[in-house]
UniProtKB/TrEMBL annotation, chain A:
Residue intervals of the ABC transmembrane type-2 domain: 54-289
Keywords: Antibiotic resistance, Cell membrane, Membrane, Transmembrane, Transmembrane helix, Transport
Record-given protein name: Transport permease protein
Bias kind Low complexity: ranges: 1-13
UniProtKB/TrEMBL annotation, chain B:
Name of the featured protein: ABC transporter ATP-binding protein
Topology of this chain in the membrane: Peripheral membrane protein
PANTHER family named in the record: ABC TRANSPORTER ATP-BINDING PROTEIN (PTHR42711:SF16)
Domain of life, source organism: Bacteria
Main location group: membrane
Lineage, opening ranks: Bacteria, Bacillati, Actinomycetota, Actinomycetes, Kitasatosporales
Compartments reported by the entry: Cell membrane
Length: 294, 285
């Protein structure tokens, strides 16, 4: 069965050092390439993701179900700007999809990997740590863009969403997506430290719920109380929603925004600030080990 | 930097680690020679896993000098990790992947890995190569852990309670595998609960109790086992008799002469590894 010779162990009294078999090592150790291993990690992460049917189903169905519910409950038209609530909800779901995939998804997944021994096992190998994060980034990019494509398709097909044709709008989409996804990914990696045990979910779910309510995902932002608008302006989700509205809603809607314009400069500023905060949190506090493991 | 003689794989002096007010490892000195199998024994909570994980670079320490393959594990980098192999205590990772996928993927991490298919075969998982890890039994799962530990062709292999949950036949095969690695020149540091495992595999045994190393010796000599008197037992006049002696053969010859042949209920008892182990950890309490 095994390829191993069934050698009887040497008598215990003989504990002379043995000569190690020469190993095929080059004199200078060549560290494995971060990018090459990162690609392999990305392929592995995606394979694991798509094999877990339940995870795939919930990742893609969650924002769609929420959107369908909201779009069926609230049906209004803002006549002076020519926008329906359904159109607004598509943009909110796009933003919240990024938040839930990159922040919540990663926090729970990495927290779980810290609990079940994955991180410990990886730290026992010469795998470059950066490759691990590259794999995670590939995973959230694929799943969040997949979600966005499904939502946009649904919105355009059934809910009167006009996909923009001007390249400028798509440029805006790209940078809002990139800044928002980067901030959420870094914060999600950092927040994985908060997950302990099997039931760590609520600790990231609760703040997300609150943010979704005050940032204009469930309720049209323009109709929220002033105080909530001010608080939400401190966090990235509000700005991601606003950025997505600026891409997919007619420019006339900008008058409904708190500042009366899309505020692209401020969106970029706040999201960049959160990218920096996320980066600092990750580099300072990310732990490969569980809290009880010194 | 700490330099280590070429024939010492692990050198530990004054190692100490506390969790709050509890001192898990309390001043341990230890040398593991290149090419030997060293077994660390001790009851639960004796500090085996803490000590091992410090040597693996998985855990920090409060005090002491540690050199593993000549480097301090707390500061060693990827080049050092490529020279060691670690089989951690049980884990439940990579549920969605097959044995072959995991082993082939991990092979990419190492500069000079063993052939993944040969490793899968060596741990006896060839017919499970296409199975997802969720379909493996506990023993098979453990052998996958071992496969990942030896994949990088390590000079030093850490095995933390590797055979917990194995049935006796699988355990035998696992011992053969480990003995084969030693024959290849791999140094092995093993922690185990099973004294028969230590006796079968280890060149030397260290007993850890309450964070201190109470004895280090070969399994035959541990705790003065080879010097301990034998106990000769027999039945005479319907009652059990026994005598402790350094010369059991002479004692039996005398008995045999007295009984004119067969001695009823004759047995010779020497302290087992378990006996000396229990004495050692009992003294440490």
């Amino acid at each position: 069965m095994t390829a191993t010779p069934a050698t009887a162990p040497a008598p215990a009294a003989d504990s002379k050092p043995r000569t190690p078999r020469p190993r095929q090592r080059t004199a200078a150790y060549a560290a494995p390439s971060v990018l090459r291993i990162g690609r392999a990690r990305a392929a592995l992460e995606l394979r694991q993701f798509f094999r877990d049917r339940r995870q795939v189903f919930f990742t893609f169905s969650m924002p769609i179900v929420m959107f369908l519910l909201l779009a069926s409950i609230f049906r209004e038209t803002y006549k002076d700007v020519g926008v329906t609530t359904q159109q607004i909800y598509v943009t909110g779901m796009l933003a919240t999809g990024i938040l839930s995939t990159c922040f919540q998804g990663l926090a729970l997944q990495i927290g779980g990997e810290r609990q079940n021994g994955t991180l410990k096992r990886l730290r026992a190998t010469p795998m470059p740590p950066a490759s691990y994060f590259l794999g995670k980034i590939a995973l959230v990019v694929v799943s969040s863009l997949g979600q966005a494509a499904v939502l946009l398709g649904l919105g355009a097909a059934f809910f009167g969403l006009d996909l923009p044709t001007a390249p400028g709008h798509w440029v805006t989409f790209v940078w809002v997506y990139l800044l928002g996804a980067t901030a959420c990914t870094l914060l999600g990696i950092g927040a994985s430290n908060l997950i302990r045990g099997e039931n760590g979910g609520p600790i990231v779910l609760l703040p997300i719920m609150v943010l979704q309510f005050i940032s204009g995902v469930f309720v049209v932002f323009a109709e929220l109380p002033k105080g909530m608008q001010t608080v939400s302006a401190l966090f990235p989700l509000k700005w991601m929603c606003q950025g997505m509205r600026s891409v997919f809603l007619p420019d006339a809607y900008a008058t409904m925004e708190p500042a009366g314009t899309w505020e692209h400069g401020r969106i970029a500023l706040v999201l960049t600030a959160w990218v920096i905060i996320g980066f600092v949190v990750c580099t300072k506090w990310f732990r490969w080990k569980g809290r009880d493991e010194g | 930097m700490e330099t280590t003689p070429g024939n010492t794989a692990v050198r530990v002096r004054g190692l100490r680690k506390a969790y709050g007010s509890h001192t898990a490892v309390d001043g341990v000195d230890l040398d593991v020679r290149t090419g030997e199998i060293f077994a660390l024994l001790g009851p639960n909570g004796a500090g085996k896993t803490t000590a091992t994980e410090i040597l693996e670079g998985q855990r920090g320490r409060d005090a002491g000098e540690v050199a593993v393959l000549g480097e301090d594990p707390a500061r060693a980098g990827a080049a050092w990790r490529a020279r060691i192999g670690i089989v951690l205590q049980e884990s439940k990772d990579f549920a969605e992947l097959t044995v072959a996928e995991i082993v082939r993927h991990f092979a990419l991490y190492y500069p000079a890995p063993r052939d993944p298919d040969e490793v899968i075969d060596a741990v006896g998982l060839a017919d499970k190569a296409g199975s997802r890890t969720t379909q493996l039994s506990g023993g098979q799962r453990r052998r996958l852990d071992v496969a990942l530990g030896i994949l990088g062709d390590p000079e030093l292999l850490f095995l933390d309670e590797p055979t917990t949950g194995f049935d006796p036949e699988v355990r035998r095969r696992f011992w053969d595998l480990i003995a084969g690695l030693r024959a290849d020149g791999t140094t092995i540091l093993l922690t185990t609960h099973y004294l028969d495992e230590a006796e079968h595999l280890a060149d030397r045994v260290g007993v850890l109790a309450a964070g201190r190393l109470v004895d280090v010796d070969t399994p035959a000599r541990l705790g003065g086992r080879h010097l301990a008197p034998a106990t000769v037992r027999w039945t005479e006049a319907g009652a059990p008799q026994e005598i402790a002696t350094d010369a059991p053969t002479a004692e039996i010859a005398a008995l045999s002469a007295r009984f004119g042949g067969e001695v009823p209920g004759l047995s010779v008892y020497r302290p087992s590894l378990e006996d000396v182990y229990l004495t050692l950890i009992g003294e440490a309490r």
